[in-house]
Every structure is written in structure tokens, then in C-alpha cells.
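Field reference: sequence -> structure
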Amino acid sequence: MAKFKKIHNIYSKLANNNGINNYPGVDEYLDPTLTEDFIWNNLNLLHTNCIIPIVEAFGIEDIKITSAYRSTELNKLMGGTETSQHVKGYAIDLLSLSKSSSVLWNWCFQNLPEWNQLIWEFPEREDFTNADQPFSWVHISYIEGNNPKTCTMSSEVEVYHELMDEGYPEEMIKRGKYLHNIPEADESIVGFTDF
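Structure field:
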């Protein structure tokens, strides 16, 4: 069975271009829990429980990791929050090269037994065509002993929140650009521009 290598979890063109060390353990001086072993163990658990099943379903050639582990310096440069799960190796951003981000999100929602967070990121950006164009992706995290299966959409365009809210349960909660407790990634709104 094909699977991702360590380099796929730490490589960052942005880090390379800015001379940033993005190797696990680099931030141990800031937080003694951020050891190399701690981060690799978290990434291993994430791959075992979430990424390998995705790869088995879609094929290794179809799944692309866009961001996994991030050092605090890289995370800050990328605009990540101070509490980003990427810094601890809990999260991976990925996409399918042949299917929409909504299809990938829905597959994860319907087939993975456990996850911490599943986020459908920026459906307004449409699907991946090349790295130079903005695109939508899926964020997935796994934390051993802490997997409430949070389901979220992230969008900077208000109409996407309104479209998702139409006809869905009142349990959905909007906080800034995040809409929590979504029941599915609605493919009909991907790239919606009728506004």
C-alpha cells in the first residue's frame, strides 16, 4: 500500500523561500511539549486513522497534502491562529486532484470513524487546478482521546453561510468565517457566483 513519506508532512515552499526551519522539534524552546517525537507521533496517528483510509479510497496519486506540520514561524507567516492544530502535528490540509473538495469532505464525514475537526475550506475558491490559483481544500485533524467529530465550513463570503443555512438544522453556529455543525459539504454551492 502506498502512503505519504515524512517529507510530505514538513515540506513547505513558503518556508524554503523565507529561510524558515520547518522540522518538528524546532519550537521546543518555545514550548517544551513540542518535541520532535511528540509531533511525529501525532502525525503518525493522524495518518493511521484518517489519511491512510482516504488514500486507500482515492488513490495516492489523487491526494495532495498542501500543509501538514507547521513550525510556529511558518504558521504565523501563513496567517494561522496561535492555537493552530498544525503546530502540534494534529492537522493536515489536503485535496483531491480529480474530485471536488465537497466530495472529499463528504467522503471523510461518511466513512471515517473518528476525527477531531473536519473543515470544508473556502468553497468560493472552487477546486484545485494549479498551485498559482486560489482553491478550496479539506482540513482534517485527529487527537488521540479527543475526537468530537466537529464539522465546519470556512468561508469569507457571507452568501456561502446563507446558502448552507437554507433548509438545514438550527444547530449550525456561525462564528466569524466559520459555520459549525454542518451536515454536509453542499456541492451545489462550490464556486457559486450568482450574487
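Note: The helical segments are 6-10, 13-17, 36-58, 72-77, 101-111, 158-165.
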